[in-house]
Design a protein that fits this description.
The complex is a heterodimer of chains A (307) and B (285).
Chain A lengths: L1 H13 L11 H30 L16 H7 L3 H34 L4 H9 L6 H12 L4 H8 L16 H25 L3 H9 L4 H29 L3 H7 L6 H10 L4 H22 L6 H4 L1
Helix pairs in contact in A: 2-13, 4-8, 4-10, 6-8, 6-11, 8-10, 8-11, 9-10, 12-13
Chain B lengths: L6 H28 L16 H7 L2 H34 L5 H9 L6 H23 L7 H26 L2 H9 L4 H30 L2 H6 L6 H8 L6 H33 L10
Helix pairs in contact in B: 1-11, 2-11, 3-6, 3-8, 3-10, 6-8, 7-8
The chains are: A mainly alpha (307), B mainly alpha (285).
């Protein structure tokens, strides 16, 4: 992302109608930069550094905090146990959701990019619009639908498919509910990068493949899919990375079996004063995200989403 | 088109598309239907009523929460757009030492989980309050101000991302011409750049506003006793008797936001037709 902007600025600045001022106006630059930079340093970098210090005991707030600098909290966490297995559980769930979401969104992206001639952007908007409404309300809608006395179960008993005392109980407050709702929330968002990468594909490749004797399926597997892969990977990461730390959906529809890593962090900070353990967990999550970004960040050019 | 999919494949894709659209809008439709239901939010339907709408319209706590969210969203969006313009300007128009690092910093909130924002700011504010209380006896506490701070952090990347493309497209020769005519840097910015940036400023404001209004994760940690709308909604979900009212107000919000999306798209098309495709950004950012 930064390299892109830098390169663009450099090439454009070289010409007569450049996009950057050639005269160095350092004072003004520093002045302009200071506002946003200061805000992020004060309210993003500093808090993160603070919880890092907290996690090793360098700072403490409550009387119960050790007050001694040690890696004991980290050792306890990394050595396995409840929180570690919760982390892996969240990874598993996020992986499942992300794969499901990509599998659902790909046909939509393909259809809109390559199967529709007129009105493709209207139809795209139709798919994306729900994502632009309230996240919380969309989760609420499912909570209302999946409950024991909810829309679905009451419909089943009213239509005599099941008895009134036999609701399907695993619909709500389960891992299933969490993954279903997360998939529902993310599918609209994920359709966009997949659509963009398919839409940007040069159609003549398809014709060329056909001219060379490939059938449609072969063309798809050997040409379309590989070319759309960057968009697919970007879409996958867009869902996977935020979902690892997700706690709102599990809080509403997860119950005890749908409890995720993010919920543990929330509980540690809001119930009781085990803030040092909470800091360890939060920092670990941040570290995992940072590693994922370092490994796969090149797929996430912001431009692929904003088209 | 023929090379991309056979007739039957196309029919399947079309069916799949319709199915997915139904899947996406069905829960919203169900909420809307049950918001008019005289009984509980379950089958059988018991008759048409508007009582839930009337109830929530005369619910002062609910409105206070909506009000708080509006205030927070207004403040955080204004700050985020202002800071975003500054950052975008510097990223697009200036070269400086450490630009890649600054750029990375500006965009990193996009990938950080909100729970990390929430807890880290909670810890920082609590620690600061403790120091303040111990030294002066006063403390600030958590409230709407802390939520605003958190929301600016997460909105900033979006405002920068929305403003940057338009800024890049605007030729610098306009600013150079203004300078040749004697305008100083602030006047150049105020009378040339800023008006031309107006569409991006408006859309980035709207993006930041909707993000903040609906934001629950960070607000749940930082709002203290001043519950914003999502925090209030969450608390009310535990009270079954409140559910029909919540369903009603949710339907209103859904309808309003869908309308907003539609309006934004229509405005974008009009702008594109009037000023040329290069002026209106393509896409939904």
């Amino acid at each position: 992302m930064a390299e892109e902007t830098e390169a663009a600025a450099a090439t454009l600045g070289a010409g007569a109608s450049g996009k950057t001022w050639r005269r160095r106006d350092r004072g003004a630059t520093a002045g302009l930069l200071s506002g946003p930079l200061l805000w992020l340093i004060l309210f993003f970098v500093a808090p993160v550094l603070f919880i890092a210090a907290y996690s090793v005991g360098a700072v403490g707030i409550f009387p119960t905090d050790a007050g001694v600098v040690s890696l004991e909290a980290w050792r306890r966490f990394l050595g396995g146990g409840v929180y570690m297995s919760l982390f892996w559980k969240s990874i598993r769930m996020s992986l499942t959701v992300s794969i499901a979401v990509v599998l659902l969104a790909y046909p939509v992206g393909y259809f809109l990019a390559l199967g529709v001639r007129k009105r493709k952007y209207v139809l795209l908007l139709l798919i994306i619009a729900p994502f632009l409404t309230s996240y919380l309300l969309r989760v609420l809608a499912w909570k209302v639908i999946l409950g024991d006395a909810g829309v679905l179960n009451s419909f089943l008993s009213w239509s005599h498919v099941r008895g009134p005392d036999e609701p399907i109980t695993w619909l709500l407050y389960s891992q299933f509910a969490v993954m279903l709702v997360l998939a529902y929330v993310w599918v609209p968002f994920v359709a966009l990068p997949i659509f963009v990468s398919l839409d940007n594909m040069d159609r003549s490749y398809l014709e060329a493949a056909g001219d060379l004797g490939a059938g449609r399926l072969r063309t798809f597997v050997r040409v379309t899919l590989p070319l759309s892969l960057p968009g697919v990977v970007a879409a996958f990461l867009f869902v996977f990375i935020p979902t690892i730390g997700e706690f709102v959906t599990p809080l509403l529809v997860g119950g005890t079996s749908g409890y995720m890593y993010g919920n543990a962090i929330q509980d540690l900070f809001t119930r009781g004063t085990a803030w040092q353990t909470g800091s360890v967990l939060a920092l670990f999550l941040l570290g995992v995200v940072a590693v994922l970004m370092a490994l796969f960040g090149r797929f996430l050019q912001a431009r692929s989403v904003t088209a | 088109m023929e090379a991309a999919a056979s007739r039957s494949a196309l029919a399947f894709l079309r069916l799949f598309f319709i199915g997915l659209v139904v899947f996406l809008y069905l829960p919203i439709a169900i909420l809307a239907i049950f918001s008019f239901n005289a009984g509980d939010v379950s089958f059988p339907l018991e008759g048409f009523t508007t009582q839930w709408y009337e109830r929530f319209l005369s619910n002062p706590t609910l409105f206070r929460a909506l009000e708080r969210s509006a205030i927070v969203a207004l403040c955080s969006s204004t700050i985020a757009v202002t800071l975003g313009v500054l950052a975008a300007f510097v990223l697009v128009r200036r070269r400086f030492v450490g630009k890649p690092a600054a750029s990375a910093l500006f965009f990193s909130p996009l990938v950080v989980p909100y729970v990390v924002f929430g807890v880290s700011l909670l810890v920082l504010f609590t620690a600061l309050d403790k120091i303040l209380a111990e030294s002066t006896g006063y403390f600030i506490g958590l409230g709407l101000h802390s939520v605003v701070i958190g929301h600016v952090v997460v909105s900033l990347p979006y405002t920068i991302l929305t403003i940057m493309p338009l800024l890049e497209r605007l030729s610098i020769s306009l600013e150079e011409a203004a300078q040749d005519l004697g305008a100083g840097p602030w006047e150049r910015f105020r009378r040339v750049t800023l008006p031309l940036l107006a569409p991006a400023l408006v859309s980035s404001f709207l993006i930041a506003f909707t993000l903040s209004f609906d934001e629950f994760a960070i607000a749940s940690f930082l709002s203290g006793t001043q519950a914003t709308w999502p925090v209030y909604l969450f608390a009310q979900l535990r009270v079954p008797s409140q559910l029909p009212q919540l369903v009603a107000v949710s339907s209103v919000i859904f309808f309003a936001s869908l309308l907003l999306v539609l309006t934004a798209e229509i405005v974008r098309r009009i702008t594109a037709k009037r000023y040329g495709e290069a002026y209106a950004s393509r896409g939904l950012a």
